[in-house]
Design goal:
It is globular and about 45 Å long. The protein has helices spanning 56-64, 89-105, 119-126, 145-151, 155-159, 178-186, 202-206, 211-224; strands spanning 4-12, 18-26, 37-42, 68-72, 110-116, 133-139, 165-172, 192-201. The protein has 225 residues and is an alpha/beta fold. Strand 5 (110-116), helix 3 (119-126) and strand 6 form a beta-alpha-beta unit. Helix 2 crosses helix 3. It is built from eight helices and eight strands, in the order βββαβαβαβααβαβαα.
């Protein structure tokens, strides 16, 4: 028997978009890692087929390790209503709505926000708009020149945030080079960490083969908060 449960619900964003949301919760009799902290995960670019299903492996692993994890389809993805935006700014409202709902309905006092691929800049723009967010983890943040045409206006929000942040990236990421990542992080405010996954490409990092490794790194980061 699994040591966590999965529930589905609907969360309304500020502009009446309905977001299909899944809650991954440790069983009542399971050991809790931290009763007051939960992890909200933000999926890759909806326009290219990103959806919450891509985060199920990490969410399951986190719940199995004693943490509440929340995934959701941003506007226009999966069963959520609305239309996706090209630059991800409308989706920032979705992240804020889900985080606030999780605090109000799951008794969470603290949230770690995790964004994957294009979900990373979107989540990063929400970090300082949610008081309960105490840290941020990016998996494959698209800092490269081409990606910045779409997501460049998100960079400032997370790089200037004083909240602790961790950037995880494969050394063979096709959207951002290690040099580009290091250049961006060199001027960032507050506590900034990076973890490079040797030989891993951008889309590989989104796959299930890396879920357990990502969760281990995330748990280490949580322990340091």
């Amino acid at each position: 028997m699994s040591n966590y449960t999965v529930e589905s619900c609907k969360v309304e964003s500020t502009d009446r978009v309905i977001l299909h949301t899944r809650l991954f919760k440790p069983r009542e009799d399971a050991k809790r890692a931290d009763d007051g902290l939960g992890v909200v995960l933000v999926h890759p670019y909806t326009v290219l087929g990103g959806c919450q299903a891509l985060l199920r492996g990490m969410a399951s692993e986190l719940a199995g390790r004693g943490l509440v994890a929340v995934t959701f389809d941003m506007r226009g993805a999966g069963k959520s209503t609305g239309r996706p935006s090209l630059t991800g700014f409308a989706e920032v409202k979705d992240v804020i709505a889900v985080c606030k709902w999780a605090c109000d309905n799951l008794s969470l006092r603290r949230i770690l926000l995790v964004g994957s691929s294009a979900g990373a800049p979107i989540a990063g723009s929400a970090v300082d708009q949610i008081e309960q967010v105490v840290g941020y983890v990016s998996i494959g943040y698209p800092f490269g020149m081409i990606s910045s045409i779409l997501f460049g206006r998100h960079h400032k929000s997370i790089l200037q945030s004083l909240k602790p942040k961790l950037f995880i990236m494969g050394t063979r990421d096709g959207f951002t080079s290690v040099k580009q990542l290091e250049s961006k992080l060199s001027g960032a405010a507050g506590r900034v960490e990076k973890r490079l996954i040797e030989g891993a490409g951008h889309f590989q990092m989104e796959g299930p083969a890396f879920d357990a490794q990502m969760v281990s790194i995330i748990l280490e980061f949580i322990a340091s908060l």
